[in-house]
Design brief:
The structure is a single chain. The protein has 323 residues and is an alpha/beta fold. The chain folds into two domains: 185 residues, HUPs (Rossmann fold, 3-Layer(aba) Sandwich), CATH 3.40.50.620; 74 residues, 2-Layer Sandwich (Uridine Diphospho-n-acetylenolpyruvylglucosamine Reductase, domain 3). The chain is built from 14 helices and ten strands. A six-stranded mixed β-sheet has the order 3-2-1-4-6-5, sandwiched between helices. A four-stranded antiparallel β-sheet has the order 7-10-9-8. Strand 2, helix 3 and strand 3 form a beta-alpha-beta unit. The longest helix has 27 residues.
Length: 323
Amino acid sequence: MILSDKNNFKNLNMINIENFLEKYIKLDEKVIIACSSWPDSMFLLHKILETKYKKNLIVCYFNHKTRYWTEIEESFIKDIWKKLWFIVETDFANIKEINKYWNSKSFEELAREKRYEFLNKIKKKYKANLILTAHHLDDKIETFLFNLSRWSKLSWLINMSEKSGFILRPLINIKKSEILNYLKENNLEYKIDETNFDTEITRNYLRYEIIPKFEKLNKNYKENISKTLDYFKELKDFIDEEVMKFLDKNNNFFYIEEFNNLSDFLQKEVIRYIYHISNWKSTIWLSEANIKEIIRFINWKNNKTIKEINKLKMKKENKIIVY
């Protein structure tokens, strides 16, 4: 669809994508962007094309084969490539078919896993260090509230920051409404995922039925929640420092007696941290029951025993725990 209405917008003139890229990427490095053809990624794509990094641009589209429109989206991106001359990399996976054989994984988790496998492959192909995504402030708040509704550690509540591992999010402090206004003002084309409006899907219900009600409490709720998440990030960094003071004493093991001298809170955070580094820097499947189970294992009288939860593996050897 092409939108041509003229709307006023303020904050997008303050976005300097070139300055952002200079902060993280050398001028001779490839700039890889995960692109869906939806408004946020098309905005980011056009913004990068305004910079000196445009000659380094690699646009990646992963087709999940879940909707008829994915073929149109892929063709749309390739048509833009023919006009604007950047490299396009595409791949696909029939997630619905694959999901039949992965009963232990949700559809969303499996789709994300396959998408990031593709992005990692492209990153290695071009010897790049980072991948840009178009996550914005609304995504950040939505993900926070979605995870808050489930049991979650701090690391999962705040996982959408400007830089997380090899992922860069230049738009993380920009509202979706500002992005849409910019696209309208500049008559830039994008596609819409029609399933995003299906409120039977939990995330969409949260997006359209729950989150808008926050504005009745405070019209600045997005900025305020963002500041709270920044505070949570500082808190997590402080906790991680305390955890590392304990773990850095040794190499991949710790003494049970020293562990038991920690506060109950820090014991849980040590387990959380070890799980995090063992599971590709994720705590998504770590439950409170898992943490209690591991602490019981640590203090169990039997020696030469092993505890495994997902990729986390702990071995008890007399007075120490090896992980």
